[in-house]
Amino acid sequence: MTVSSMRPGLRDAPGEIEVERAIAEIRAGRPVILHDVSERIVALACEALDADLCERFARLAPAGTRLALSAPRLRRLGAQRRDAGAVTMPVLDAARAHALAFDPNARLDAPAAALSPLEEGALELMRLAQVLPAAIVARADGAEAAFARPLDVALAHVTSYRPGRLASLRIVSRARVPLEGAPDSEFIVFRGGEGLRDQVAIVIGAPDFSRAVNVRLHSACLTGDLFGSLKCDCGDQLRYTARFMAENGGGVLLYLDQEGRGNGLANKIRAYDLQARGYDTYDADETLGFDNDQRRFAFAAEMLKALGAQRVLILTNNPEKIAALAQAGLDVVADQRIQGRRNTHNIRYLAAKRDKAGHLIDLDRAPA
Protein backbone atom coordinates (compact mmCIF):
# COMPACT_ATOMS: atom_id res chain seq x y z
CA MET A 1 0.00 0.00 0.00
CA THR A 2 1.51 3.29 -1.06
CA VAL A 3 1.19 6.81 0.23
CA SER A 4 -2.03 8.26 -1.15
CA SER A 5 -3.31 11.74 -1.80
CA MET A 6 -3.80 13.90 1.28
CA ARG A 7 -7.37 14.83 0.20
CA PRO A 8 -8.95 11.77 -1.43
CA GLY A 9 -12.64 11.40 -2.09
CA LEU A 10 -13.86 14.73 -0.70
CA ARG A 11 -16.41 15.06 -3.50
CA ASP A 12 -17.81 11.65 -2.50
CA ALA A 13 -18.17 12.22 1.25
CA PRO A 14 -20.29 15.30 2.02
CA GLY A 15 -21.88 13.52 4.99
CA GLU A 16 -18.50 12.74 6.51
CA ILE A 17 -17.45 16.38 6.22
CA GLU A 18 -20.74 17.44 7.82
CA VAL A 19 -20.19 15.16 10.83
CA GLU A 20 -16.58 16.26 11.26
CA ARG A 21 -17.70 19.88 11.39
CA ALA A 22 -20.37 18.90 13.92
CA ILE A 23 -17.73 17.17 16.08
CA ALA A 24 -15.67 20.37 16.06
CA GLU A 25 -18.74 22.43 17.06
CA ILE A 26 -19.57 20.10 19.96
CA ARG A 27 -15.99 20.14 21.22
CA ALA A 28 -16.06 23.96 21.04
CA GLY A 29 -19.15 24.03 23.26
CA ARG A 30 -21.59 25.14 20.57
CA PRO A 31 -24.97 23.53 19.79
CA VAL A 32 -25.72 21.74 16.54
CA ILE A 33 -28.97 20.76 14.86
CA LEU A 34 -29.67 17.10 14.08
CA HIS A 35 -32.44 16.23 11.65
CA ASP A 36 -34.13 13.26 10.05
CA VAL A 37 -36.95 13.21 7.52
CA SER A 38 -39.59 14.51 9.94
CA GLU A 39 -37.96 16.25 12.90
CA ARG A 40 -35.14 18.54 13.99
CA ILE A 41 -33.55 18.92 17.42
CA VAL A 42 -30.81 21.10 18.87
CA ALA A 43 -28.10 19.22 20.78
CA LEU A 44 -25.45 20.64 23.10
CA ALA A 45 -22.79 18.92 25.20
CA CYS A 46 -24.05 19.18 28.76
CA GLU A 47 -20.54 19.93 30.02
CA ALA A 48 -20.63 23.16 27.96
CA LEU A 49 -23.89 24.40 29.48
CA ASP A 50 -23.69 27.80 31.21
CA ALA A 51 -26.09 30.57 32.24
CA ASP A 52 -26.12 32.20 28.79
CA LEU A 53 -26.91 28.94 27.02
CA CYS A 54 -29.63 28.20 29.58
CA GLU A 55 -31.28 31.49 28.67
CA ARG A 56 -31.02 30.75 24.96
CA PHE A 57 -32.59 27.30 25.40
CA ALA A 58 -35.34 28.85 27.55
CA ARG A 59 -36.23 31.18 24.67
CA LEU A 60 -36.04 28.33 22.18
CA ALA A 61 -38.01 25.80 24.22
CA PRO A 62 -40.21 27.53 26.83
CA ALA A 63 -41.95 24.20 27.52
CA GLY A 64 -38.65 22.68 28.62
CA THR A 65 -35.71 20.66 27.37
CA ARG A 66 -34.46 17.12 27.91
CA LEU A 67 -31.16 15.81 29.21
CA ALA A 68 -30.11 12.67 27.30
CA LEU A 69 -27.93 10.36 29.40
CA SER A 70 -26.14 7.10 28.64
CA ALA A 71 -27.20 3.81 30.21
CA PRO A 72 -24.12 3.58 32.48
CA ARG A 73 -24.76 7.07 33.86
CA LEU A 74 -28.42 6.30 34.51
CA ARG A 75 -27.45 3.16 36.39
CA ARG A 76 -25.11 5.25 38.55
CA LEU A 77 -27.99 7.64 39.24
CA GLY A 78 -30.08 4.71 40.48
CA ALA A 79 -32.30 4.05 37.45
CA GLN A 80 -33.39 0.47 36.90
CA ARG A 81 -32.88 0.38 33.14
CA ARG A 82 -30.45 -1.05 30.61
CA ASP A 83 -30.84 1.59 27.90
CA ALA A 84 -29.99 5.24 27.55
CA GLY A 85 -32.74 7.67 28.49
CA ALA A 86 -33.73 11.30 28.90
CA VAL A 87 -34.81 13.36 31.88
CA THR A 88 -37.27 16.19 31.25
CA MET A 89 -36.13 19.60 32.50
CA PRO A 90 -39.09 22.03 32.57
CA VAL A 91 -36.68 24.76 33.68
CA LEU A 92 -33.15 24.32 32.39
CA ASP A 93 -30.77 24.81 35.29
CA ALA A 94 -27.04 24.34 34.69
CA ALA A 95 -26.31 23.16 38.24
CA ARG A 96 -28.99 20.47 38.10
CA ALA A 97 -27.99 19.34 34.61
CA HIS A 98 -24.31 19.12 35.57
CA ALA A 99 -25.15 17.17 38.72
CA LEU A 100 -27.21 14.63 36.77
CA ALA A 101 -24.54 14.38 34.09
CA PHE A 102 -21.40 13.87 36.15
CA ASP A 103 -21.70 14.49 39.91
CA PRO A 104 -20.64 11.18 41.53
CA ASN A 105 -23.04 11.72 44.44
CA ALA A 106 -26.13 12.69 42.43
CA ARG A 107 -29.27 10.56 42.27
CA LEU A 108 -32.04 10.61 39.72
CA ASP A 109 -34.69 13.17 40.68
CA ALA A 110 -37.20 12.54 37.87
CA PRO A 111 -38.24 9.62 35.63
CA ALA A 112 -36.03 8.72 32.68
CA ALA A 113 -37.92 8.21 29.42
CA ALA A 114 -36.80 6.40 26.28
CA LEU A 115 -34.74 8.34 23.76
CA SER A 116 -35.93 9.25 20.31
CA PRO A 117 -33.67 8.26 17.38
CA LEU A 118 -32.46 11.86 17.14
CA GLU A 119 -31.57 11.91 20.83
CA GLU A 120 -29.67 8.64 20.36
CA GLY A 121 -27.82 10.40 17.55
CA ALA A 122 -27.00 13.30 19.87
CA LEU A 123 -25.35 10.92 22.34
CA GLU A 124 -23.38 9.28 19.52
CA LEU A 125 -22.18 12.73 18.46
CA MET A 126 -20.99 13.36 22.05
CA ARG A 127 -19.03 10.10 21.96
CA LEU A 128 -17.47 10.95 18.61
CA ALA A 129 -16.43 14.34 20.03
CA GLN A 130 -14.98 12.65 23.16
CA VAL A 131 -16.95 14.83 25.54
CA LEU A 132 -19.03 13.42 28.38
CA PRO A 133 -21.98 11.39 27.01
CA ALA A 134 -24.70 13.75 28.21
CA ALA A 135 -26.59 16.06 25.85
CA ILE A 136 -29.05 18.92 26.29
CA VAL A 137 -31.69 18.50 23.57
CA ALA A 138 -34.73 20.50 22.47
CA ARG A 139 -36.92 20.89 19.40
CA ALA A 140 -35.13 23.03 16.86
CA ASP A 141 -37.99 25.29 15.79
CA GLY A 142 -36.49 28.78 15.95
CA ALA A 143 -32.96 27.57 16.64
CA GLU A 144 -31.48 29.89 14.05
CA ALA A 145 -32.75 32.88 16.05
CA ALA A 146 -31.64 31.54 19.44
CA PHE A 147 -28.13 30.55 18.34
CA ALA A 148 -25.65 32.00 15.87
CA ARG A 149 -26.01 30.00 12.66
CA PRO A 150 -25.96 26.50 14.19
CA LEU A 151 -24.59 23.73 12.01
CA ASP A 152 -27.21 21.30 10.69
CA VAL A 153 -26.28 17.61 10.36
CA ALA A 154 -28.34 14.62 9.19
CA LEU A 155 -28.87 11.79 11.66
CA ALA A 156 -28.12 9.27 8.89
CA HIS A 157 -24.67 10.79 8.44
CA VAL A 158 -23.93 10.56 12.17
CA THR A 159 -24.92 6.90 12.37
CA SER A 160 -22.93 5.98 9.24
CA TYR A 161 -19.82 7.95 10.20
CA ARG A 162 -17.82 5.19 11.90
CA PRO A 163 -18.25 2.63 9.09
CA GLY A 164 -17.38 5.30 6.56
CA ARG A 165 -14.15 6.14 8.35
CA LEU A 166 -13.15 2.47 8.28
CA ALA A 167 -13.61 2.40 4.50
CA SER A 168 -11.44 5.52 4.09
CA LEU A 169 -8.38 4.15 5.93
CA ARG A 170 -5.16 4.95 4.06
CA ILE A 171 -1.43 5.49 4.54
CA VAL A 172 -0.36 9.16 4.42
CA SER A 173 3.33 9.06 5.44
CA ARG A 174 6.16 6.77 6.50
CA ALA A 175 9.80 7.02 7.60
CA ARG A 176 12.56 5.08 9.33
CA VAL A 177 12.81 6.03 13.02
CA PRO A 178 15.39 4.17 15.15
CA LEU A 179 14.13 3.38 18.65
CA GLU A 180 15.99 2.54 21.81
CA GLY A 181 16.05 -1.24 21.93
CA ALA A 182 14.64 -1.46 18.40
CA PRO A 183 16.85 0.62 16.07
CA ASP A 184 15.49 -0.98 12.88
CA SER A 185 11.99 0.51 12.94
CA GLU A 186 9.70 2.25 10.48
CA PHE A 187 6.76 4.50 11.41
CA ILE A 188 3.76 4.33 9.05
CA VAL A 189 0.97 6.84 9.64
CA PHE A 190 -2.62 5.98 8.67
CA ARG A 191 -5.51 8.40 8.36
CA GLY A 192 -9.14 7.36 8.67
CA GLY A 193 -10.56 4.45 10.60
CA GLU A 194 -11.24 6.25 13.90
CA GLY A 195 -12.65 9.73 14.07
CA LEU A 196 -10.37 12.62 13.11
CA ARG A 197 -7.26 11.04 14.55
CA ASP A 198 -4.18 9.59 12.86
CA GLN A 199 -3.00 6.09 13.78
CA VAL A 200 0.53 4.70 13.65
CA ALA A 201 1.93 1.32 12.72
CA ILE A 202 5.54 0.75 13.81
CA VAL A 203 7.12 -2.04 11.80
CA ILE A 204 10.03 -3.34 13.85
CA GLY A 205 12.81 -5.34 12.19
CA ALA A 206 11.93 -7.32 9.08
CA PRO A 207 8.88 -9.45 9.87
CA ASP A 208 8.08 -12.22 7.40
CA PHE A 209 4.48 -11.51 6.39
CA SER A 210 4.16 -14.95 4.75
CA ARG A 211 4.27 -16.38 8.28
CA ALA A 212 2.62 -15.48 11.60
CA VAL A 213 3.74 -11.97 12.60
CA ASN A 214 4.19 -10.64 16.15
CA VAL A 215 1.54 -7.94 16.68
CA ARG A 216 0.50 -5.64 19.49
CA LEU A 217 -2.45 -3.22 19.55
CA HIS A 218 -1.36 -0.52 22.00
CA SER A 219 -3.78 2.27 22.90
CA ALA A 220 -2.06 5.59 23.51
CA CYS A 221 -1.52 6.47 27.17
CA LEU A 222 0.01 9.93 27.56
CA THR A 223 0.48 9.60 31.31
CA GLY A 224 2.03 6.14 31.21
CA ASP A 225 3.82 6.02 27.86
CA LEU A 226 5.40 9.48 28.03
CA PHE A 227 5.50 10.50 31.69
CA GLY A 228 5.94 7.14 33.36
CA SER A 229 2.76 7.25 35.44
CA LEU A 230 2.68 4.63 38.18
CA LYS A 231 -1.12 4.25 37.89
CA CYS A 232 -0.85 1.78 34.99
CA ASP A 233 1.66 -0.54 33.29
CA CYS A 234 1.21 0.89 29.78
CA GLY A 235 4.70 2.36 29.41
CA ASP A 236 6.30 -0.92 30.43
CA GLN A 237 4.16 -2.85 27.95
CA LEU A 238 5.02 -0.45 25.13
CA ARG A 239 8.78 -0.56 25.63
CA TYR A 240 8.89 -4.29 26.33
CA THR A 241 6.96 -4.98 23.12
CA ALA A 242 9.43 -3.01 20.99
CA ARG A 243 12.41 -4.85 22.50
CA PHE A 244 10.69 -8.24 22.24
CA MET A 245 9.90 -7.75 18.56
CA ALA A 246 13.42 -6.53 17.79
CA GLU A 247 14.86 -9.68 19.37
CA ASN A 248 12.28 -12.16 18.03
CA GLY A 249 11.92 -11.81 14.28
CA GLY A 250 10.32 -8.38 14.17
CA GLY A 251 6.69 -7.43 14.28
CA VAL A 252 4.07 -4.70 13.99
CA LEU A 253 3.20 -2.45 16.91
CA LEU A 254 0.01 -0.47 16.29
CA TYR A 255 -0.01 2.74 18.36
CA LEU A 256 -3.69 3.70 18.42
CA ASP A 257 -5.08 7.07 19.45
CA GLN A 258 -7.64 5.64 21.88
CA GLU A 259 -6.65 7.40 25.11
CA GLY A 260 -8.54 6.33 28.21
CA ARG A 261 -10.08 3.21 26.59
CA GLY A 262 -11.51 5.43 23.88
CA ASN A 263 -12.96 8.10 26.19
CA GLY A 264 -10.35 10.75 25.39
CA LEU A 265 -7.70 12.44 27.51
CA ALA A 266 -9.98 14.90 29.31
CA ASN A 267 -12.33 12.16 30.43
CA LYS A 268 -9.42 9.94 31.42
CA ILE A 269 -8.15 12.65 33.76
CA ARG A 270 -11.68 13.08 35.13
CA ALA A 271 -11.69 9.34 35.84
CA TYR A 272 -8.28 9.61 37.54
CA ASP A 273 -9.74 12.24 39.86
CA LEU A 274 -12.52 9.83 40.81
CA GLN A 275 -9.99 7.04 41.32
CA ALA A 276 -8.16 9.29 43.78
CA ARG A 277 -11.44 9.39 45.71
CA GLY A 278 -11.69 5.60 45.93
CA TYR A 279 -13.35 4.46 42.69
CA ASP A 280 -11.73 1.72 40.63
CA THR A 281 -11.02 2.37 36.94
CA TYR A 282 -14.33 0.91 35.69
CA ASP A 283 -16.52 2.42 38.41
CA ALA A 284 -14.97 5.80 37.59
CA ASP A 285 -15.77 5.45 33.90
CA GLU A 286 -19.34 4.33 34.62
CA THR A 287 -19.83 7.33 36.93
CA LEU A 288 -18.89 9.54 33.98
CA GLY A 289 -21.36 7.71 31.73
CA PHE A 290 -19.06 5.33 29.86
CA ASP A 291 -19.21 1.58 29.33
CA ASN A 292 -16.24 -0.54 30.37
CA ASP A 293 -14.50 0.00 27.04
CA GLN A 294 -15.40 2.42 24.23
CA ARG A 295 -12.69 1.17 21.87
CA ARG A 296 -13.23 -0.56 18.54
CA PHE A 297 -10.51 -2.56 16.81
CA ALA A 298 -11.84 -3.33 13.32
CA PHE A 299 -9.76 -0.50 11.84
CA ALA A 300 -6.64 -1.94 13.53
CA ALA A 301 -7.22 -5.21 11.69
CA GLU A 302 -7.51 -3.26 8.42
CA MET A 303 -4.18 -1.56 9.15
CA LEU A 304 -2.54 -4.96 9.60
CA LYS A 305 -4.06 -6.28 6.37
CA ALA A 306 -2.83 -3.18 4.50
CA LEU A 307 0.70 -4.01 5.65
CA GLY A 308 0.38 -7.59 4.45
CA ALA A 309 -0.31 -9.42 7.72
CA GLN A 310 -2.76 -12.32 7.53
CA ARG A 311 -1.56 -14.56 10.35
CA VAL A 312 -0.65 -13.01 13.72
CA LEU A 313 0.73 -13.83 17.14
CA ILE A 314 -0.79 -11.13 19.34
CA LEU A 315 0.90 -9.79 22.47
CA THR A 316 -1.93 -8.79 24.77
CA ASN A 317 -3.78 -9.49 28.00
CA ASN A 318 -7.10 -8.33 26.54
CA PRO A 319 -9.36 -11.08 25.13
CA GLU A 320 -11.42 -8.42 23.30
CA LYS A 321 -8.43 -7.62 21.09
CA ILE A 322 -7.90 -11.29 20.30
CA ALA A 323 -11.56 -11.73 19.37
CA ALA A 324 -11.66 -8.52 17.31
CA LEU A 325 -8.75 -9.54 15.08
CA ALA A 326 -10.22 -13.00 14.56
CA GLN A 327 -13.65 -11.55 13.79
CA ALA A 328 -12.04 -9.22 11.23
CA GLY A 329 -10.67 -12.21 9.32
CA LEU A 330 -7.11 -12.45 10.61
CA ASP A 331 -5.76 -15.85 11.61
CA VAL A 332 -4.74 -15.47 15.29
CA VAL A 333 -2.39 -18.43 15.66
CA ALA A 334 -1.38 -17.64 19.25
CA ASP A 335 -1.57 -15.01 21.96
CA GLN A 336 1.02 -14.11 24.55
CA ARG A 337 0.73 -12.23 27.83
CA ILE A 338 2.56 -8.96 28.28
CA GLN A 339 2.67 -7.51 31.77
CA GLY A 340 4.52 -4.54 33.23
CA ARG A 341 5.78 -3.85 36.70
CA ARG A 342 3.36 -3.83 39.61
CA ASN A 343 3.43 -1.21 42.35
CA THR A 344 1.20 0.11 45.11
CA HIS A 345 -0.37 2.63 42.70
CA ASN A 346 -1.40 0.24 39.91
CA ILE A 347 -2.18 -3.04 41.69
CA ARG A 348 -5.87 -2.16 42.12
CA TYR A 349 -6.10 -1.06 38.50
CA LEU A 350 -4.65 -4.36 37.30
CA ALA A 351 -6.93 -6.36 39.59
CA ALA A 352 -9.98 -4.48 38.28
CA LYS A 353 -9.01 -5.23 34.67
CA ARG A 354 -8.68 -8.92 35.57
CA ASP A 355 -11.86 -9.17 37.65
CA LYS A 356 -14.25 -6.83 35.80
CA ALA A 357 -13.11 -6.99 32.18
CA GLY A 358 -11.66 -10.49 32.02
CA HIS A 359 -8.11 -9.43 31.17
CA LEU A 360 -5.67 -12.33 31.31
CA ILE A 361 -3.51 -10.97 34.12
CA ASP A 362 -1.75 -13.17 36.67
CA LEU A 363 -0.84 -10.93 39.58
CA ASP A 364 1.28 -13.71 41.10
CA ARG A 365 3.41 -13.93 37.97
CA ALA A 366 6.67 -12.00 37.75
CA PRO A 367 6.47 -9.03 35.34
CA ALA A 368 8.13 -9.32 31.94
Cα shape: globular
Give helix and strand order, one letter per element, not per position.
HEEHEHEHEHEHEHHEEEEHHEHHHEHEH
What is the CATH class designation of the largest domain?
Alpha Beta
Neighbour order of strands in the largest sheet: 5-4-3-6-2-1-7
| Sheet with the most strands, sense and barrel status | 7 strands, mixed
The averaged pLDDT comes out at 92
User: In angstroms, what is the radius of gyration?
Assistant: 22 Å
Tell me roughly what share of residues is in helical segments.
25-40%
CATH topology of the largest domain: Rossmann fold
CATH homologous superfamily classification of the largest domain: GTP cyclohydrolase II
How much of the sequence is in beta strands? 15-25%
- Number of extended strands: 14
CATH architecture identity of the largest domain: 3-Layer(aba) Sandwich
Q: What's the total helix number?
A: 15
| Estimated structural class | alpha/beta
Total domains: 2
Distance between the termini: 34 Å
Low-pLDDT regions = 1-12
Overview of the structural elements:
Helix content is 37%, strand content 21%. With 368 residues, it is α/β, with parallel strands linked by helices. A seven-stranded mixed beta sheet has the order 5-4-3-6-2-1-7. Strands 8-9-10-12-11-13-14 form a seven-stranded mixed beta sheet, sandwiched between helices. It is globular and about 65 Å long. Strand 8 and strand 9 form a beta hairpin. The protein has helices at 14-27, 51-60, 71-76, 94-102, 117-129, 143-146, 155-159, 161-167, 222-226, 234-247, 265-276, 281-287, 298-307, 319-327, 347-357, and strands at 32-35, 40-45, 65-69, 85-89, 112-114, 134-139, 151-154, 170-176, 185-191, 199-204, 213-219, 251-256, 311-315, 331-336. The chain starts with 13 loop residues before the first helix and ends in an 11-residue tail after the last helix. The relative contact order is 0.12. Helix 1 (14-27) crosses helix 5 (117-129) and helix 11 (265-276) packs across helix 12. The chain has two domains: 10-159, DHBP synthase; 165-258 and 295-357, Rossmann fold (3-Layer(aba) Sandwich), CATH 3.40.50.
